[in-house]
Input
Amino acid sequence: MSRKVLIVGAVALGPKAACRLKRLDPSAEITIIDKDYLISYGGCGIPYYVGGDVADIEGLYSTASHHVRDCEFFEKCKNVKLLCRTELISIDRKAKKALVRHHDTDQTEEMVYDQLVLATGATPIQPPIPGADLPGVTVIANLHNAIRVKDLIAKGKVDKAVVIGAGAIGVELAEALTDLWGVETTLIEMMDQLLPPAFGKDMSRLIENHMTGKGVKILLSEGVTHILGDEKTGVTGVKTNKSEIPCDLVIMSVGVRPNSQIARDAGLAIGMYGGILVDKRLRTTDPNIYAGGDCIEMTHLVSGQRIPMPLGSLANRQGRIIGTNLNGGWEEFKGTVGTFCLKIFDLGIARAGLTVKQAKDAGFDPVYALVAQSEHAHFYPDQALMYIKLIADRNTRKLLGIEAVGSKGDAVKARVDAVAALFQYNASVSGVSNLEVSYAPPYASAMDVVNAAGNTLENIILGQNIPIDVADMVAAFDQKKVRVLDVRGKIESQSFIEKYGDQWINIPQEELLDRFDELPVDQPLCLLCDTGPRSFETQLFLKSKGITNTRNIQGGYGMLMLSYPEFIPD
Amino acid sequence: MSRKVLIVGAVALGPKAACRLKRLDPSAEITIIDKDYLISYGGCGIPYYVGGDVADIEGLYSTASHHVRDCEFFEKCKNVKLLCRTELISIDRKAKKALVRHHDTDQTEEMVYDQLVLATGATPIQPPIPGADLPGVTVIANLHNAIRVKDLIAKGKVDKAVVIGAGAIGVELAEALTDLWGVETTLIEMMDQLLPPAFGKDMSRLIENHMTGKGVKILLSEGVTHILGDEKTGVTGVKTNKSEIPCDLVIMSVGVRPNSQIARDAGLAIGMYGGILVDKRLRTTDPNIYAGGDCIEMTHLVSGQRIPMPLGSLANRQGRIIGTNLNGGWEEFKGTVGTFCLKIFDLGIARAGLTVKQAKDAGFDPVYALVAQSEHAHFYPDQALMYIKLIADRNTRKLLGIEAVGSKGDAVKARVDAVAALFQYNASVSGVSNLEVSYAPPYASAMDVVNAAGNTLENIILGQNIPIDVADMVAAFDQKKVRVLDVRGKIESQSFIEKYGDQWINIPQEELLDRFDELPVDQPLCLLCDTGPRSFETQLFLKSKGITNTRNIQGGYGMLMLSYPEFIPD
Output
């Protein structure tokens, strides 16, 4: 007799596991249930649908060859039974039965399984703010809310929007509203930076300034205390601990929580973040029950900690692994390194591994380099700078994390994905210095920006390069505790000297050999060039001449300009 | 007393090693010599200079901050002595002396060294073709020839050009001449494909058709036997074993040979391809002499074989390693995986590892998958297909190679660089299936094209997917030995049925469940969909119904159209 497999959840992982198993064992009797009727959609496309890049909602639940993935499609093309509007109520593990409710008939049914797959996803956290239930306040968690919001916007009913929470979805939504609909959008975040868990404050500042430049109003270190309005007119504004912002739409995106209650009730082990615990084969503590996607916890391959990582890309890969293992195969999901990328207006950003803060929390002693370099050969036209932050452990030189920002998203992704591939092998900094990335002048430098990041970090760890962050430099400069030695040309430095007087010293690098004894040494000298290499050489040269109280400004003028535009003379 | 370091060669590796050492040990007395006066240039930029993308020759030997890298620059900014037009004649290893000739004075000089670095590069192979010394015949090996050629073109003296040799440089030059100058260009290659060592014939066919479509005339399997013309009028054409092509410029690019004669004469070990042998620290068999770049042989990390790999990117990284080791450090160059990328008109191409042919030659049993998939989420606008060929060993599943082609070069590079990072760790196919590449709809699919390549290859190795190459399918189809079952829609298949009659069968995938018994089974059925996944599912479905004589066409319609446009109905 053929085995009965029941899969709970029909968004990303569920259908993937079903189709994979069906390909391996056409005789398997597979049923997928989902409480919704909109299924098998690309949830990560929601901001693009709201924004209008994806014109038609069907695009999000169609195949690449434009088949709508509905129940009939799964029946006809995949030979998989799919029951919509059917919700899991409880699991009787001993009897291998699942109790489900059919919403259309309000009937319950006991479904027998040989193997069960939990792909129950996650639920957006709804912060307990007064007014959160007013009309015009929503979380974008599924297609229904997305359709509703887009409908409001398209009808011209939204002039001003507030997005609460500046994680990836919040940032994408703020862009979508501003860019394509011209909605006056305010993004509010409790932490003191955008994308708080994923990027360091220095890198997120680049993103913040870019978004601000595109018209998004960003409020950091602010918490929403009330949502204003009434049942009749709907939302009219939000009140924070600092200000009040009028608006007619509020979207909350403050994170998600794994849907694991039924698993917990059934006695399956649950992790400290509320995700279902699984082994490398993605089996729960019951060997007949698999789980994957947003409802589980997985091992972070750099920190070794178990955490939820609600990413559609992981869910899809896990779905295939579960399909293989359901058929008696042995495929492992070893863990995640938290790789992701985003497009934010004209910026592409990507990251993997741990941030400095996450690395400290995990017990490492993180040290980092921040480099700026053209993403392709400097002699090839149309170059633009890419910014890479590379993080490692000071003692072991173990690679911990990478964050990158640049105007060419695919090029940013290329650097991060290549380094991310190294994390699982416990690689060290020199693995990045010598990483063999492909080179041609239109796409890379012979010594590529990613290699430069490795080289710089190595120099910092060895104490050859003594850096200072742009933020620390600006703070110390404002307090007149440091001087800047600008080794660029006279023309580039002129306006700085006019603005900052003798706190700003210009000696072009090629004149230093003759003029280094002009330098005042009563205060630390912060060394500045375009992007960092010449100031590093200057630091070494000055050291050889006995001037050691210097700091090399990480990322140079490029980083300064993008991080603190107000510091730059008009 | 400070050490004396002599570096021979001032293009890529030499200056890099010098600057690195100087940073670590400012007291080192470093002298670089070069027989030329044009030094420290980006040789990989030459095609872009000839083509005009790089307008000014100085761009190729300037820094990112527009300093011309001449002798004075090295003196002032790097504190390194650089002697141009000074050539190495011989090495007296026992006495640690190098005999050099100063071309300007025609004097020789003995230079004492503590450590010597050989960065002597490679010389273009000049095939012994009659007429190769005529005016208008050149190899593009250095800036002098590049300047001469560009000068001829810019003066309008070149209407028709022939490029001999379709390696990377030949292909780039053919593009440069055609694209920017409208020169009628013929590219001649003795082998039966473009880029013969780097890409398989199937992938190079995509490149060939793209170039042909852009106006480059390509002659494969042709060898030039004579270059026609006389001393006075210069070159007038070339004669091959098959045809005669009139032209007024001939550029030869048939490969390079390591410059190792002086090293050989000095008793250093030389490899079977004529490159200097070095250890992982890049020391020759004399521990006081280092070598790197185009003049050495290095270990291929996939095949284990020692080969020359003349790439500027490797030379730069090796230069830094040599600089570190000259100072008593311990940095290793473990080897190469032969990663490189190219831009060819509107195509980006990249590769790493071994081709199928190279893998066979190295003793593997290669098997491969060729997949086509949009480079970003299929619902996001402006998608284009990327083609990836992934190669592994059948028995061990060890990853052997990757080749990729697509319209977005940075996106192509991203996939290849991430997989290339795995080669050094002896990864297997499942390492690509589960590779954690970053995902956002504008930049990737949730199940990315590179993961799909891993999945497909795994299915092929397990015998679940029984593929056929487009080339084999077309050949068998022409001989009426196979039929095509087209599971796309009626509209897409209509013109094929009109052209090919009942050799072309259309049953859309969703109708197969009801109609599979219509299928004739007297001949193999080649299964076609847009890119491959649906035809794979069809193959499994038919197998479950007892129809097993089927082949899944790799890369589907996309691959067929780009490889054999003549096969497609008008």
Q: What stands out?
A: The domain at 137-254 of chain B is CATH 3.50.50.60 (FAD/NAD(P)-binding domain). The first helix of chain B runs from residue 13 to 24. Chain B touches chain A through 105 residues (CB under 8 Å).
